[in-house]
Amino acid sequence: MGGNLFSSNRLISQHIMARETPDGTSRGAEGEGSQWWKLRQRWRMLGVFEIDPEHEFYHLTSNIKEGLRASIAGQATADTADQITLTDVHFKAKDIKPHEGFEMHTFAAPVFAKLRHSLDITEEEFMSSLCSDKNYLQFVSNSKSKADFFLTNDKRFFLKTQSKREVRFLLSNLQAYMNHLEKYPHSLLVRFLGVHRIVIPHQLKKYFIVMQSVFYPDERINVRYDIKGCEVGRWTNPDTKGGQIIKVLKDNNFKNQYISLGQEKSWFDSQVKADTAFLRQLNVLDYSLLLAHQPLHQDEIEGKHSLANLVLRTTKSLDLDDNYRASETQTGVAADSASCGSDKLQAAAEVVGEENKSAARGTRTDSELQEFHDHHLRLLPNFKNSVHVIDGSDRRYFVGIIDIFTVYGSKKRLENLWKNLRFHSRAFSTVSPRKYSHRFCQWIQAHTQ
Description:
Elements: H1 2-19, H2 33-44, E1 48-50, H3 58-73, H4 78-83, H5 88-91, E2 94-99, E3 102-107, H6 109-118, H7 123-130, E4 137-139, E5 149-151, E6 157-162, H8 164-172, H9 174-183, E7 192-200, E8 204-212, E9 223-227, E10 249-250, H10 265-281, E11 284-285, E12 288-295, H11 298-303, H12 307-330, H13 337-361, H14 370-374, E13 389-391, E14 395-402, E15 406-407, H15 410-422, H16 433-446
Parallel strand pairs: 9-10
Antiparallel strand pairs: 1-4, 2-3, 3-7, 4-5, 5-6, 6-8, 7-8, 9-12, 11-15, 12-14, 13-14
């Protein structure tokens, strides 16, 4: 499969290079314009390949889209999702919808509908992206994962096949995951938006999850990293040899570099500690910080501190928190959420006032955002994917903690013993959750400024 994909795309690349002038303009008959445009668009999708009718996954992804369309349409609307009081019944819910030639199983649908609502994702736009007439994209990288990765055509949502064990782990800890997001609405943990299983009789049974893509929008991203906080096996040769594959770099590729967040550093450090403490409680290791960045344009740098922008960002930050708090109140987690919300509103007003003064005088002080940070919040950018986007002084960073399904069981303990013998005194990934989270946080602190 991989050879056919890369061979076909090399031919496309050669065809394009043969038909372009040095300045990038095309030459050829006007009648070939439409076909030329399609070839060029496909060539530009580095690391992703359109799953067209000739692709081996076309039938599978077409069935997935059909099944998701019926599943989403059958769920609560955004308004009713906000009103539902989640119970054990919702967390254990399982819906099976038969289709011609396959079945679609959907797990804990009301819970994920509520989570999507808390992220300001309407059911209409969710369905529009996942069930579009446009083809899914296959994501190809240098990852060692055996899973299949698909992207919606707009690249907003990720679909990843998972093992039965991984899905069971997620569903068994879904209540704890939701509680963590309620306490930390701007958490860096990847947002799971649905868990499903497609069954095609006598052919396959595949579990898959739907996630919010950390790298959205990705048009200007120029480098990507997968960080675990260790050294063994954590180098990737960045040379693609002209191949159409996205190279995700690793820890050792990041040497002598920093995540430059300025005043958001303290929030970032504390949020990473909170998220890894949660994962440590779940006895999880081997998770990664996905990291990418792109340069900020001058107008983006200047606009960050305008009053209009600050009001938008503060409103967005509080709206996201209020959505989580509504869930929190209905599940009985927080009796004082109204008081807490009032405190946060006051803190936000102070932040906007201070930020506006700072913008006028061209400076900011380290204490201005502390009240907001004390409530586990930050000023979110005005983005659809705002929880995974942080603006530094001259770069926009995309960050998210992913791959949270590896439990430190007997198999990993044996692997730890073997690696201790082989890589004595070197930092490798298979260590206890306590040591893993501590080392992970140390790496973040050492590489953030």
